[in-house]
């Protein structure tokens, strides 16, 4: 894995979350979005634990936290 591949993978998964919300609506996208959020966290912990690929990992974590909160506390 290299930095460019890692960043492209993360951007692609974030874009997938956003597109699923737009196309399916939040209620129908919920299960997929939560799965992708867990995948994002797992990939970041595995590949970027030493911040080698993304020094600003807190931005990814903020996106994950905000999106997860929307689905778990939002009641969708």
Automatic annotation (TrEMBL):
Source superkingdom: Bacteria
Source species: Halalkalibacter okhensis
Lineage of origin: Bacteria, Bacillati, Bacillota, Bacilli, Bacillales
Protein name: Uncharacterized protein
